[in-house]
Amino acid sequence: MQDAAPGQVSFASDRLRPVRIWLYCLAAFVLLIVVVGGITRLTESGLSITSWKPISGVIPPLNDAEWQAEFEAYQQIPQYSVLNSWMELDDFKYIFFWEWFHRLLARALGLVFLVPFVVFLAQKRLSRDLAWPLFGLFVLGGFQGALGWWMVSSGLTELTSVSQYRLAAHLTAASFLFIALIYVARSLTPGRVLGHVTPFHRFSTWLLLIGVVMQIGAGAFVAGLDAGMGYQTWPLMDGAIIPNGLFIMDPAWRNLFENALTVQFIHRGTAYLLVAYVAWMIWRRHKDGGFGGVHGWLPRIGIIVLLQVCLGIATLLAGVPISLAVGHQALAFMLAGLVIAYAADMRRVR
Questions:
Q1: What whole-number distance in Å separates Cα of residue 276 and Cα of residue 282?
Q2: SS (H, E, C) the chain
Q3: Domain ranges of the chain
Q4: Does position 5 have pLDDT exceeding 80, yes or no?
Q5: Cβ(66)–Cβ(153) under 8 Å?
Q6: Which residue ranges does UniProt annotate as crossing the membrane (predicted)?
Q7: Which of 51, 28, 184, 29 lies closest to 111, judged by CA?
Q8: pLDDT tens for residues 51-90?
């Protein structure tokens, strides 16, 4: 993919190499948080902590009295009274762990960002033009944490789970952060990339990225409505290619976000469109000169798209087991990472 001239770049002269490694580690950390967040969602653990304590919340309950206080706070929300009134303290401790661990990782991300950032500033590895965008990513990470609490708060008074709208906002913002980290890291890679790139290549790739991010958001609506728990057949859905009842809600737009049948249908349909679009991109590139240089990303993207579709179907048919569902979500982020790496490398073609 990359072809630096001999002697052009050495490890000693590549002062941004530690910065790139740090950015890739941050992206991997974001992906870990997404995975744990998926487990938190699938175990219905997200509402187990009913308060937001950014500092003191790092420490979990340490004695019976503290555990009982947390459990009593959970007993005041609708999820407990409607769905989980059977729970004993030991059951509560299990769901509490996943939400606490998810929040702990989110807090740790701030430190994993801020400490190296300050060190790199002190070492003068970061120019002003690079430091400000990186600080913007830090702000985006903090905004993601605020979105997380905004999401949790939606399920503490009237709902028995979090709002699917807020869940989609939270997950989509995480995808923006992940994509931005990969993009900046790839953009800082020294040397040149071989290949011929046209405005069409750039446009089609960015359009694909938009489609992938939209699909991640659609998946969040599926998760928020537990839409994957129904209509667990493929390729037919409720016995038909186009099932009845897609627009039974009034006004019609609500079906796109609140009708479990429609939401799952949209998620399936978008997947088919993405497969067709990537197949078209690959066919077009094959006709125009093959997959050398920067365009070597395309076959890899095609493979991941097919794996993602197969994993999505398997997740549905198996009844949405945690392992497959979390893998499906993680692979969606990896796909977005490949697409943004392709787009970033296009800027480095000379």
A1: 10
A2: CEECCCCCCCCCCCCCHHHHHHHHHHHHHHHHHHHHHHHHHHCCCCCCCCCCCCCHHHCCCCCHHHHHHHHHHHCCCHHHHHHCCCCCHHHHHHHHHHHHHHHHHHHHHHHHHHHHHHHHHHCCCCCHHHHHHHHHHHHHHHHHHHHHHHHHHCCCCCCCCCCHHHHHHHHHHHHHHHHHHHHHHHHCCCCEECCCCCHHHHHHHHHHHHHHHHHHHHHHHHHHCCHHHCCCCCCCECCECCCCCCCCCCCHHHHHHHCHHHHHHHHHHHHHHHHHHHHHHHHHHHHHCCCCHHHHHHHHHHHHHHHHHHHHHHHHHCCCCHHHHHHHHHHHHHHHHHHHHHHHHHCCEC
A3: 17-189, 195-350
A4: no
A5: no
A6: 21-42, 104-122, 134-152, 164-185, 206-225, 265-283, 303-320, 326-344
A7: 29
A8: 988 888 899 999 999 999 999 999 999 999 999 999 999 9
pLDDT digits (tens, 9 = 90+) for 90-128: 999 999 999 999 999 999 999 999 999 999 999 989 888
Structure tokens at 173: 């913002």
Q: pLDDT at position 191, please?
A: 83
Distance, CA of 319 to CA of 325 (rounded, Å):
9
Q: What pLDDT, on a 0 to 100 scale, did the predictor assign at position 6?
A: 35
List, for residues 21-59, the tens digit of each pLDDT value. Answer: 999 999 999 999 999 999 999 999 999 999 988 888 899
Long-range (24+ apart) CB contacts under 8 A made by 50-53 are 50/74, 50/76, 50/77, 50/156, 52/149, 52/152, 52/153
C-alpha distances (whole Å) from 66 to each of 60, 70, 73, 74 are 9, 6, 11, 13
Place of tokens 């993919």: 1
How large a percentage of the chain has pLDDT more than 70? Answer: 96
In the chain, the amino acid numbered 301 is: I
Q: Which residues are annotated as a binding site for heme?
A: 267, 328
Evaluate if residue 133 carries a pLDDT over 70.
Answer: yes
Q: How far apart are alpha carbons 232 and 23 in whole angstroms?
A: 39
